[in-house]
């Protein structure tokens, strides 16, 4: 029987999970939140931490307790739902959002700042960079059993060290006072919560939890209870790392108003680091971004390869699926970051509430039996409202429906799906009781 992991190995697993979570979006969204929220930063940051740290933590815990399989987790509701919802999550992460974004952000923050403006805007340079980027992603993702050594023990400490250096310098030489909250943060708590969506970690937790479990099994650990304990331990390490880094990056953003309001988190970070360190700082930032992007890219592609080669296309090999995902992500990445985010936003707004309902009810299910009708009705309630939010985010009119939906609690702050989801769960429970007594 495989001997228990040493404490240093447990920490390495946690660092690997942290590195998988902490990608391009995680690096750029907290500074934008900090600058936008201004004096209300701590309220907004609390909302961000709930969705950006709390949900991923619960997601990994649920996966660990339920055996590490998203298909099994969603299959509890219905096999077709499991296949469709699982495929949407993996496609969103691997093709339409996360992985292409890692390549584009890595280029724009680690390469473009060191080029002339005319040269940086040459599309062929992005093509060449992303081509090499995905060759490296493909190579690293071919053997997921080595993810712990390659990511947890090497790239993550580099990333954390660079962030620590930047924050310490910012504390030693303060940039200025916090500004006033912008109009977007009129409701800082809920705005911060929704900002946490765009890290994608709430959904990614249903994927990354399985990456950890597969890695542990590859290392010879087969006892399910041991796997669950190690995975949950790793989840808390990753969550603690995310919490500390988010607070630090949000602080950098909030204290940088004197440098000018940045169009996005990437610009804000670039301004901060350039102010504190000059060109050397920009190089440090570029290394940090490259590490964060690459680790996330490798983890997601590896998870996509496992899912699609076993659940969707069983006749395809893991290597073939990984190759296809790298090729698809390469083409999508060259659309451009702005267009890519605009394309992905409606999809995320539509499916995120479904993921939240699934995570929360699955956690309850571990202790108390939850009827399938509660899952189904709760998700229907959430999706019915979130689909309207998705249509609005795509700049399409929803006509008279908007005035009706405005009467739903929290709809004006982007959380209108919450009450219908709860009502749906109650209806689902009543249906299950009626079915038993019939």
UniProtKB/TrEMBL annotation:
InterPro entries: Brnchd-chn_aa_trnsp_Livcs (IPR004685)
Keywords: Amino-acid transport, Cell membrane, Membrane, Transmembrane, Transmembrane helix, Transport
Record bears the keyword Transport: yes
BP-aspect Gene Ontology terms: isoleucine transport; L-leucine transport
Localization per Swiss-Prot or TrEMBL: Cell membrane
TM region(s), chain numbering: 7-29, 41-65, 77-99, 119-142, 154-176, 196-216, 228-252, 282-308, 320-337, 343-363, 370-388, 408-431
Membrane topology: Multi-pass membrane protein
A single Gene Ontology CC term: plasma membrane
Molecular function GO labels: L-isoleucine transmembrane transporter activity; L-leucine transmembrane transporter activity; L-valine transmembrane transporter activity
Protein family (similarity comment): Belongs to the branched chain amino acid transporter family.
Family matches, as PANTHER family: BRANCHED-CHAIN AMINO ACID PERMEASE BRAB (PTHR30588:SF8), BRANCHED-CHAIN AMINO ACID TRANSPORT SYSTEM 2 CARRIER PROTEIN (PTHR30588)
NCBIfam families: livcs
Free-text function comment from the UniProt entry: Component of the transport system for branched-chain amino acids.
Protein name: Branched-chain amino acid transport system carrier protein
Protein encoded by which gene: brnQ
